[in-house]
Write a structure and sequence with these properties.
By secondary structure, this protein is of the alpha/beta class. It has helices at 16-26, 41-47, 49-73, 90-98, 101-115, 131-141, 151-168, 187-197, and strands at 5-10, 30-32, 82-84, 123-128, 172-177, 204-209. It has one domain: Rossmann fold (3-Layer(aba) Sandwich), CATH 3.40.50.300. It has eight helices and six strands; from the N terminus they run βαβααβααβααβαβ. Strands 2-3-1-4-5-6 form a six-stranded parallel sheet, with helices on both faces.
């Protein structure tokens, strides 16, 4: 493996946590998983986005920052592999989608202060799936507050991710079209992803249809 710190990203329902867990177990990596289940604003946000978007994004940013700061302070980026199921820039991507312009400008200032204190991943992986497959995965995992997410919202999130990657990627970013893969149930599909992650990539966006 050429990388010490890999972050797995993707839209809602893309399988990023499943892949991070599989890689962590397979490669005996230190695993960092996003902690969101107890966030009191998430169910409220899906019912009333305008009212709860800012406290939701602010609470997520604080949780992500504190988790990464604590975990990365106790691991060595030089001697062990770290796999995370998110990248801190996720906060900027979702806030740009969910916040008003004034709220976003304020949020951006807070993000930049926190982001400056965290190391960047050696490789950022973005799992691309079309909206129909994302909705199928969302329904399959059964979180009640996600069941009415409209296609339009998932499209906006997808576009925000890809735009951010195009404009801000200073590290190697691997965008993998996984529409034809089921890496959870099919070992060959997982091995294909494992192989792709073991290759060297140039800084910027590297797009692969797996």
């Amino acid at each position: 493996m050429h990388y010490n710190f890999i972050a797995i990203e993707g839209n809602i329902g893309s399988g990023k946590t499943s892949l991070a867990k599989m890689l962590g177990e397979d490669m005996k990596a230190s695993l960092i998983l996003e902690e969101f289940a107890d966030n009191p604003f998430l169910p409220k946000f899906y019912k009333n986005p305008e009212k709860y978007a800012f406290p939701l994004e602010l609470s997520f940013l604080a949780e992500r920052y504190h988790q990464l700061k604590e975990r990365l302070a106790h691991t060595s980026l030089f001697s062990e592999l770290i796999v995370s199921d998110y990248y801190i820039a996720k906060s900027m991507i979702f806030s740009r989608t969910n916040l008003s312009k004034d709220e976003y400008r304020l949020f951006q200032k807070m993000f930049e202060i926190m982001d400056a204190n965290l190391p960047r991943p050696d490789l950022l992986v973005y799992l691309y799936k079309d909206i129909q497959q994302l909705q199928a995965n969302i329904k399959k995992r059964g979180r009640h507050y996600e069941q009415k997410i409209p296609d339009e919202y998932l499209i906006k999130v997808q576009e925000s991710y890809l735009n951010y990657i195009r404009q801000n990627a200073k590290m190697p970013v691997l965008v993998i079209d996984t529409n034809k893969l089921d890496f959870v149930k099919n070992p060959q599909d997982y091995e294909r992803l494992h192989y792709l992650l073991s290759q060297r990539y140039a800084p910027g966006m590297n797009h692969i249809t797996a």
